[in-house]
Specification:
Layout (H helix, E strand, L loop, with lengths): L1 H16 L4 H15 L2 E4 L3 E4 L4 E3 L2 E4 L13 E5 L2 E4 L3 E3 L4 E4 L4 E4 L4 E2 L4 E4 L2 E4 L4 E2 L4 E3 L18 E3 L4 E2 L4 E3 L3 E2 L4 E2 L4 E2 L2 E2 L5 E3 L4 E4 L6
Parallel strand pairs: 1-4, 2-5, 3-6, 4-7, 5-8, 6-9, 7-10, 8-11, 9-12, 10-13, 11-14, 12-15, 13-16, 14-17, 15-18, 16-19, 17-20, 18-21, 19-22
Antiparallel strand pairs: 22-23
């Protein structure tokens, strides 16, 4: 009983700071815990399809972290037909959309977070490493959804792989076949499609390219 009371107080304080409805968030938390054995603290405007396909090692917080520009009415949606896993506890910002296809795999490392209003449309595979910061209005897309033929077309891998300790700035678009090495910073509004194997660089522009070397961020 003490654990439940302590958790209720923790959720209450979170909700008060983030303009969330404590009764709804707490009832949903108990539901996910008792029915699915998953610790999911979700804002009242969160819709989850496929809870049973989410693997969590710790708490998953959805829309209950304070972000000054997010609105109480913002809807967060997780449509999980494939696999969505978190190595450790994780935070997903309000207004984010996840659409994970039936055969797709999406994996997040430990120590990271997603700020708000980002989209993850994954039909193949997305790997996000440890300690990655994903800013607002980002997009991850690994499928064209149409067949395009042209002369000398190269067949590229579809999966997206992000290394450890990568900071992805606001408005970044990351498309299929992208690999980003450890320690990199992706500049705001960059459009990234390609393989970047050099660690600790700043990557920016459209199309994205390496613009700075030997970078450290915290």
């Amino acid at each position: 009983m003490k654990k439940i009371i302590d958790k209720a107080l923790f959720i209450y304080n979170k909700c008060r700071k983030a303009n969330s409805s404590f009764p709804i968030v707490f009832i949903k938390y108990l539901y996910y815990w008792l029915v699915y054995n998953k610790k999911i603290m979700a804002h009242q405007n969160t819709l989850i399809n496929g809870v049973e396909k989410i693997k969590i090692n710790g708490d998953l917080n959805i829309g209950v972290e304070y972000v000054g520009f997010s609105k109480k009415s913002d809807v967060t949606m997780l449509n999980v037909q494939g696999e969505l896993s978190f190595k450790k506890g994780y935070s997903i910002g309000r207004g984010c959309i996840f659409d994970i296809g039936e055969n797709a795999v999406v994996q997040f490392g430990k120590g990271g977070y997603i700020t708000a209003n980002s989209r993850f449309i994954i039909m193949n595979k997305l790997i996000i490493g440890d300690d990655c910061a994903i800013s607002w209005d980002c997009e991850f897309l690994d499928n064209d959804f149409h067949q395009i033929s042209y002369e000398n077309k190269k067949i590229r891998p579809k999966e997206i792989v992000i290394g450890n300790h990568v900071w992805i700035g606001a408005g970044v678009k990351v498309y299929q076949g992208t690999t980003i090495a450890d320690g990199c910073v992706i500049a705001s509004n960059a459009v990234v499609r390609g393989v970047f194997l050099e660690k600790n660089t700043i990557i920016g522009g459209n199309p994205a390219r390496v613009i700075k070397h030997n970078v450290n961020w915290s």
